[in-house]
Write a structure and sequence with these properties.
The chain is mostly helical. Helices cover 81% and strands 0% of the residues.
Amino acid sequence: MNTLIQSEPFILALVLGSYQLGVIIQKKSGIKLLNPLITAISLIIAVLMLLKIDYTVFEAKSSIIHFMLGPSVVALGYLLHKQIGHIKGNIGSIAAALTLGSLVGIISVIAICKLTGSTQAVTASLQPKSVTTPIALGLSVRSGGIPALTAVVVVACGIFGSIAGPWLLDKLGINSKVARGLALGAASHGIGTARAMEMGPIEGAIGGMAIGLMGVITAILIPVIEQLL
């Protein structure tokens, strides 16, 4: 029995099944706050504790899901290719918006951490909060951060952005499909882009592009800002 619950098929079934259950619960309830990721994370934690499965075992057996994060981001390039016409003529504004967004995100984290007396490790862990998980973890490690903390913050930002982002954009009267997709992809990476894809193919494609560009820009800016500050 112990061998079965610690096997890769069981762990993968737990992860995928928990997420699918979260999707069903959200659809049936109609409550946007019940994000499938929140349900999945809660259920997985409960099962791991109940069955006394060590996290290192869970991490090792579910590594293929972490690996697939990279290819899944690249796959968004297909959507981007189909919607390339909506980017032409907006390249300058898109680059400026992402650069400014990255700057504000990094500097605000540093400022808040300094005001609260946080350690350098915590600051380094929070800086890449708006970058997709594989890139964020690499940036965190390079800056002396705590990867586990970075992963939690990245997921939290993604969930919050996917829930609050569309509402905030509506309240601000931002109706441009390019702007909405860019905002969700840049601020909430993969989870935000998944929400953008629900809005439409243009929003989803632009969100996917924002994930990659935000990762590159943030990777360049973090070491530069660390040197300046």
